[in-house]
Amino acid sequence: MGGPAPELEALFQQLNSQFFDSALTPVPVVWNARLTSRLGRYLPVEGRIEISPHLHREHGWGHVRDTVLHEMVHHRLNGSATRPHGPEFKAEAKRVGLASIHGPALQQGYRWLYVCPACHRQYPRRRRGVWSCGRCSRTYDPRFKLRLVRRLG
Ligand SMILES: [Zn+2]
Ligand SMILES: [Zn+2]
């Protein structure tokens, strides 16, 4: 797969209208089968969003939507931030309803999202298990046992 993708362009238009008042400059949204270690990327110089078709196969359309939206936030911020997922990105991702951790976490192979019941810090994990929050207690403490929130992918 590669080149023009009407289904991705349609998704871009829909999300643009839903979350950005159609104010984002349209950019090509294409499949890129060579993207294997990431879900997608925004190329600020070329002005293009690329989405991994592997994601589509393994995780379904919902993840494609979230990834396109994630890359659209980069597009909105013009890919200019020195830290691509810094505070500006997080605020905008939150506004459009993306869990800020979602894109990068999945890219690193994290499959499960846990949260500390006390401080609400999020912990993406590659496997399921029992842990307590490292910020609330330096040793295992059942009061801060991480709760499984959801599956990421
Ligand atoms: Zn990103
Ligand atoms: Zn905590």
Fold and architecture overview:
There is one protein chain. The protein is built from five helices and six strands, in the order αβββααααβββ. The protein is of the alpha+beta class. It folds into two domains: 6-95, Metalloproteases ("zincins"), catalytic domain (Zincin-like), CATH 3.30.2010; 112-151, no CATH class. A hairpin with a 4-residue loop joins strand 2 (40-43) and strand 3 (48-51). Helix 1 crosses helix 3. The longest helix has 16 residues, at 61-76. The model has no long low-confidence stretch (mean pLDDT 84). The structure holds zinc ion (2 copies). One zinc ion binds at residues 70, 74, 84-85, 103. One zinc ion (ZN) binds next to loops.
Overall strand count? 6
Question: What is the CATH topology assignment of the largest domain?
Answer: Zincin-like
Order of helices and strands: HEEEHHHHEEE
Give the mean pLDDT. 84
Q: Class of the largest domain in CATH?
A: Alpha Beta
Helix content: 25-40%
Radius of gyration over C-alpha positions, nearest whole angstrom:
17 Å
Shape: elongated
Q: Give me the side-by-side strand order of the main sheet.
A: 1-3-2
CATH homologous superfamily of the largest domain? Metalloproteases ("zincins"), catalytic domain
| Ligand list | zinc ion
> Largest sheet, described in full?
3 strands, mixed
Strand content: 15-25%
Work out the helix count: 5
Q: Which architecture of the largest domain per CATH?
A: 2-Layer Sandwich
**Structural class estimated from helices and strands:** alpha+beta
